[in-house]
Amino acid sequence: MNDVWTVPGYAQVRELGAGGSGRVVLAVHGATGTAVAVKYLADRLREDPAFVREFRAEARLLGGLRSPYVVGLYEYVEAPGGAAIVMELVDGISLRALLKQSGRADAEAALVVLKGSLLGLAAAHRAGVVHRDYKPENVLVSPDGSSKLVDFGIAAGRGTTPGVAGTPAYMAPEQWQGRPASPAADVYAATATFFECLTGRKPFDGTNFAELAVQHIEAPVPETEAPEPVRPLIRRGLAKEPERRPENAEAFVAELEGVALAAYGPDWEERGQRKLAALAALLPLLFPSAGAPAAGTTALATTALKPPARSLLPGRRGALAAGAVLVVGALLMFTYDAVGGEPDGAAALSAFATTGPGAPVASPAPGPSPSGSPSASVSASASPSTSVSPSVSTSASTSSGPSGTPTPTPTSTVTEPTPTPTPTPTPTLTPTPTPTPTPTPVVVSGVSVSLSAAPSAGRATVSLDVRGGPATVTIEWFRGDSPGDLRSADGADSVAVEAGTGPVTRSHALARVGGCYLSARVTTKPAFDKKTAVDSILIPRCQEVPR
């Protein structure tokens, strides 16, 4: 191993996972003694400039995202011996590992997972980035039940057309069709994962790419398999047309908060987090902090596109959809996620595959997914004459970093590769990432709410002081017959508030009929000293003009 390049200044401890596109290791920063996760690009991929560009792009993207719900970047280093992304170490295990152990999750626990990772998506969406590969392998659960989003290896800018890419079981209809990347596609994938948490199976179980494409594009949403209170979220999030879904993750969080509050009461999130922590506690040896021996395997798979089963072709439109997928498939190369044994909770491991008539179909080895459907990660170029779109997807699922872990303070550096004797000059890389500061506890104080109302709408202004990092403010709306009457819910809004931000103002169109008083209840995460703030106002149409 002496000839293997490592990032200067870090001592490698053990390998956390490996795959066709690279490996992830647990390392310690020499100057501070802080544990980090280092994602190395595979040597053979460094010979392809396109893969190197994508790897750099992933680092730049992580460097631009500042969210407690997204794995943080410390630095990106590139040298003649290799390329690596140094990230915070999340002491967590993948949602896939939890589902493999428990089969499914309680509705409140599933809602907590969905909300946490949606807030990570929301940070990306605000930055104009679409993740494109949301799945259980890319959601990490910490011992306290909090969750975090990882692996932006195939992320793309909103509105761009990078080609067909994603993991088939979670891909939105428009992703199969190669349409521009949009936040609504991430909402779809998050909902598919939410469905799997609730039911123990993926929403569609086609046995090949063509079947899955037809099902995602045409098959009815299987909402009735989910608990009745959360079916509206499944129905909205898995809508076939992107315009019928929440437009982005932040909007979906607002809908989730409203549904969860109405169905499970104000303490749903606290209970769900406890349940999630209990599930994680069943797998103590899978956490990076457990120090279990590293394990990683790489598999090579080839696949052929088979015609869809006749039972999955609902009429002429189904046949046309399948035909379109097969035409696209003939032009594409696919990337398989060959899942290893996960003795340490490692993420799905990437291996590259080619397509061709008559090629054998290789299932992910050795452990099939619960539904038996392919869990391949598809990455394709749109033209047979161009090279395959790079998909650097060695996930840091078990190695990217927990809340509460001390952060290193290395100087953020980008080490350039020295020029090689080739006619192509080495691209200049601007050192965009900066080291993450030592975490400061998030404190919320001085919370108050005041209301104003029009005949059919309300407006809440929330004053608060946030220190140490972002907080989440939730405004719950109620209609009643007296001030402070909180029995009849009328929806909820949720917004992330950065430290030092001024008052938050939210308008709300009244959804219910009846009741002359509009009330707003404000809670925050983390909670402030009084836990809630409430204000009520008489709706203008109910006010009597004094005589």
Explain briefly what this protein structure is.
The chain has helices spanning 43-46, 49-64, 95-102, 107-126, 173-176, 183-199, 209-218, 231-237, 249-264, 268-281, 315-330; strands at 10-19, 22-29, 35-41, 73-79, 82-88, 93-94, 129-130, 139-141, 147-149, 156-157, 165-166, 335-338, 349-352, 378-379, 443-454, 457-467, 471-480, 488-497, 504-509, 517-525, 533-538. It is α+β, with helices and mostly antiparallel strands and 547 residues long.
How do the strands and helices of this protein lay out in sequence?
Layout: E1 10-19, E2 22-29, E3 35-41, H1 43-46, H2 49-64, E4 73-79, E5 82-88, E6 93-94, H3 95-102, H4 107-126, E7 129-130, E8 139-141, E9 147-149, E10 156-157, E11 165-166, H5 173-176, H6 183-199, H7 209-218, H8 231-237, H9 249-264, H10 268-281, H11 315-330, E12 335-338, E13 349-352, E14 378-379, E15 443-454, E16 457-467, E17 471-480, E18 488-497, E19 504-509, E20 517-525, E21 533-538
Antiparallel strand pairs: 1-2, 2-3, 3-5, 4-5, 6-8, 7-10, 8-9, 11-14, 12-13, 15-16, 16-19, 17-18, 17-20, 20-21
Helix pairs in contact: 4-6, 4-9, 4-10, 7-11
What does this entry look like structurally?
- This protein is an alpha+beta fold and 547 residues long.
- The protein is 24% helix and 23% strand.
- The protein is built from eleven helices and 21 strands.
- The protein has helices spanning 43-46, 49-64, 95-102, 107-126, 173-176, 183-199, 209-218, 231-237, 249-264, 268-281, 315-330; strands at residues 10-19, 22-29, 35-41, 73-79, 82-88, 93-94, 129-130, 139-141, 147-149, 156-157, 165-166, 335-338, 349-352, 378-379, 443-454, 457-467, 471-480, 488-497, 504-509, 517-525, 533-538.
- The strands form seven sheets. It has a five-stranded antiparallel β-sheet with strand order 1-2-3-5-4. The protein has a four-stranded antiparallel β-sheet with strand order 18-17-20-21.
- Helix 4 (107-126) runs antiparallel to helix 9 and helix 4 crosses helix 10 (268-281).
- It is globular and about 80 Å long.
- It starts with 9 loop residues before the first strand and ends in a 9-residue tail after the last strand.
